[in-house]
Design a protein that fits this description.
The chain is an all-alpha fold. About 85% of the residues lie in helices and about 0% in strands. It is built from 14 helices and no strands. The protein is globular, with a radius of gyration of 22 Å.
Length: about 325
């Protein structure tokens, strides 16, 4: 395996890291379009910074996606000067765009790579009909996207969340909720306004960037396999990526979908008749993990720099009061 990796060289390693950066950039452009529709101009650099920091958390911690989502409003307010209510409304729109663009991504690549999906289905399950499951997944994702837009377009979602939070029988908690009631109402108003803008502005224009971001994932896997000497066409690799990306999202409790990607690629490469699939799969996983760790290290470096002033201030206070 080490020979496979060392044969790639520094230029190859740099090329492997590039699609992730491109995907991040494309998503930030789409996210910026969302904020513009909400009446907020946001520069690209703060969005990059926030996405790198939160992606590091999402990729490395158990239930990392949940922790990352909870950090985003605070970080957007700090670095991009986006008010909390507008940040939450933007994140709602982003989640809708991620789901709807993934539905398109799964349907598009499943159609273009249907022959490969049928081979994988027959080899792994004994039934070629399971290849149609990818279209079922796409349909379910479409329903989820419609449910999200319907829920938040009503302008009462945050109000319902507030009503649930009020049931917590703690006086201090309730006083805090009273202070933030206006923020909940503002979030409802903003999400209602966003989804009232029409399909082109809410879905089509920003959604193109999110869709291209998804395609970068398949491009990354295709590039790694090419560098490892695997001769599979792009749509064959993309078909594998469609299956595994969905499983990684379902099993979000696992950091970076650990195990799903590793076992999944070995199984799929074996099913497609790739020679020495176990070694190639191990090298592929090592390169993928290495790329993820590299960008996670960048994200944590930014997060550490972000937290350092607060930690220094806290230490100084403790010294002064000692």
């Amino acid at each position: 395996m080490s020979e496979n990796i060392t044969g790639i060289g520094l230029l190859g390693l740099a090329a492997i890291a590039t699609p992730a950066l491109l995907a991040l950039t494309l998503e930030c452009i789409g996210f910026r379009c969302v904020f513009q529709s909400l009446g907020q101009r946001v520069a690209m650099v703060p969005l990059w910074r926030v996405r790198l920091m939160t992606e590091a958390v999402a990729q490395t911690l158990p239930l990392g996606v949940i922790w990352a989502e909870s950090l985003k409003p605070t970080l957007l307010e700090r670095h991009a000067r986006v008010p909390t209510s507008r940040a939450v409304a933007g994140l709602v729109a982003r989640k809708y765009l991620l789901v709807s663009s993934q539905a398109t991504y799964v349907a598009l690549l499943s159609a273009l790579g249907f022959v490969t999906l049928s081979r994988l289905s027959l080899s792994l399950t004994g039934q070629a009909a399971f290849a149609w499951g990818a279209f079922v997944v796409s349909f379910v994702l479409c329903l989820i996207a419609l449910a999200l837009s319907g829920t938040f377009a009503s302008g009462h979602a945050a109000e319902r969340v507030l009503a649930l939070l009020r049931r917590i029988p703690t006086a201090r908690w309730r006083r805090g909720l009273i202070r933030h009631e206006a923020s909940f109402a503002s979030t409802d108003s903003l999400t209602e306004r966003y989804f009232a803008l029409g399909f082109v502005r809410t879905t089509l224009l920003p959604g193109v960037f999110f869709l291209c971001g998804w395609l970068c994932e398949a491009l990354e896997s295709f590039l790694i396999l090419k560098l490892l000497g695997v001769d599979l066409d792009f749509f064959a690799v993309a078909s594998i990526e469609v299956l595994l990306s969905f499983l990684k999202n379902v099993l979000f409790v696992l950091p970076a979908g650990i195990g799903v990607q590793d076992v999944g690629y070995v199984s799929c490469l074996s099913a497609l008749g790739v020679p020495d699939a176990l070694t190639i799969g191990a090298a592929f996983s090592a390169l993928k993990r290495g790329k993820e760790l590299f960008w996670a290290a960048v994200g944590y470096a930014l997060l550490t720099a972000d937290l350092r002033p607060a930690l220094v201030s806290r230490v100084q206070k403790e010294v002064l009061t000692a």
